[in-house]
Write a structure and sequence with these properties.
- With 279 residues, this protein is mostly beta strands.
- The protein folds into two domains: 32-101 and 143-166, no CATH class; 171-279, no CATH class.
- It is built from one helix and 24 strands.
- It has one helix at 3-29; strands at 33-35, 44-46, 50-54, 59-65, 70-75, 84-88, 93-98, 108-110, 115-119, 122-126, 143-149, 154-159, 162-165, 172-176, 179-185, 188-192, 197-204, 207-211, 216-219, 222-231, 236-250, 255-261, 266-269, 274-277.
- It is elongated, with a radius of gyration of 25 Å.
- The protein starts with a helix and ends with a strand.
């Protein structure tokens, strides 16, 4: 083959491979965009068909708003680093992804008759065997604040601190080992573990609850329609909302209290679990 023809064929094949590769990447990952905050106030403002928050190392506050834009800001001690990335997809989903906790650097330990630990310039002193952390440490957990128009579905995953969510009147997904106080939602799918406590003011749609450890879940009112509960450990689930149908699996020392179920529920009770169903 002539050298020039060989080069042309090589360039063609390279271009073809790159094109196919980019197409496969587009199909797999879409064209998500990392959004930058407004330079004037450090906040994000974006249109969204749904909002997903995952892995944020701090407290979360979601308030409802009457506007069309989702407003996002971070307060507290971030040591000069934005602890989130805000990502928008072509489908309209907006994701708030936790980047990392407040960075810990400059850790030093000395020993002798006593120990001294210094973290980020904060001195922590101890006796010979017990280390205590000064509660007056200047470190403050970051606070994620979101203004969310009503009706936009919300998902919060990998949550470990405190969350407060207003009356979003939209579907909610929640996975937490922390505490959460939630207003009015439509369908709800929540998973709570550890010592997490979740209270939901009102639901009006399908309800799915999974608990483990010492978790507690209370749904105070509403029309839960179809209810699915999987309770384990020493957890407690109280559903005061009316339900049409219910499927309950309770294990260990868990307890489930359903205030009202129209049709005969399906129950699986193992160990020392306790299930109470009203009419």
């Amino acid at each position: 083959m002539h050298p020039i023809s060989a080069i042309k064929e090589l360039l063609f094949m390279t271009t073809l491979i790159v094109t196919i590769g980019l197409g496969a990447w587009e199909m797999a990952y879409g064209s998500d965009r990392v959004l930058q905050p407004d330079a004037s106030n450090g906040q994000w403002s974006v249109s969204a068909s749904s909002l997903r928050i995952s892995g944020f190392n701090g407290n979360i506050e979601v308030e409802t708003s009457v506007g069309s834009q989702v407003q996002i800001s971070v307060a507290g001690d971030t040591r000069g680093n934005a602890p989130i990335s805000v990502i928008a997809s072509d489908s309209g989903e907006v994701s708030i992804v936790g980047v990392s906790a407040v960075p810990v650097s400059g850790v030093s330990v000395s020993s002798g008759n006593s120990s001294v630990v210094v973290v980020n310039g904060v001195r922590v002193a101890s006796g010979s065997s017990v280390i205590s952390i000064n509660a007056a440490s200047p470190l403050e957990s970051p606070q994620l604040k979101v203004q969310l128009p009503q009706g936009i579905p919300l998902a919060i995953f990998d949550h470990r601190f405190q969350a407060r969510v207003g009356d979003i009147n939209a579907p909610l997904e929640l996975s937490t080992t922390g505490d959460a106080v939630i207003g009015a939602v439509t369908s709800v799918d929540i998973s709570v573990a550890g010592n997490g406590e979740v209270e939901i003011a009102r639901v009006r749609g399908s309800t799915s609850v999974t608990t483990a450890g010492n978790a507690e879940v209370v749904i105070a009112s509403g029309d839960a329609k179809t209810v699915g509960i999987n309770a384990g450990g020493n957890s407690e689930v109280v559903i005061r909302a009316k339900a049409t149908d219910a499927v309950v699996s309770a294990q260990g020392n868990s307890s489930v209290d359903l205030a009202s179920v129209l049709h005969e529920p399906t129950l699986q009770i193992l160990g020392n679990a306790d299930v109470e169903v009203g009419e």
